Known about the structure:
The chain is α/β, with parallel strands linked by helices. It contains four helices and twelve strands. The chain is globular, with a radius of gyration of 15 Å.
Amino acid sequence: MRKTNIGVLALQGDFDAHRKRLEELGAEVVLVRKTKQLDNLDGLIIPGGESSTFLKLLGEAGLEKLKSFVRMKPTFGTCAGAILLAKEVENPQQMGLGAIDIGIRRNAYGRQLESSIRQGVFQGSPTEMVFIRAPKISRVGPAVEVLATEGKDPVMVRQGNVMVATFHPELSADTSIHKAFLESTNNGGQRTGTSGSQSS
Ligand code: GLN
């Protein structure tokens, strides 16, 4: 069986830690610098960085190409990637891909808490979460499933093939979040409900 081909958007920001993690887990990784490279990928990670810079670098055509990709294939956005995928962005308002029905507030933890490592819960297990100038999910639409929380806040959510986290799982030793994403790409992008695939 061929390896899963996963793209990591590599325009800017924290893409290399995702590449390493995905390779450790056996995926073939393509660092996507031109949206042309999206053809033939099984899934995509949009990493942390600066969401407004991503928008500038992508331009209108790049954004359109990315929009059609995320409609079809499993996509995981972390931090700035989550902001890019959200339907509504505040602080300040910003356009994006509108791919997941959430509201998200940029830089929501304020100056004193620009970055922090906290313990949240993912799939019922305590999980280390690294937050860097992180956004907060301020609204979760009815079709959106909450996968992880930190305190009372939803910090990782999914709707269909689109999953987002406000923290940086690529910076913690625990591989379970990237594993969950790779599992969703093995389902051929048809995933809608919760996982249940033991065999693959
Ligand atoms: N503050 C950044 C933004 O608003 C996100 C930070 C990150 O990705 N670590 O886009």
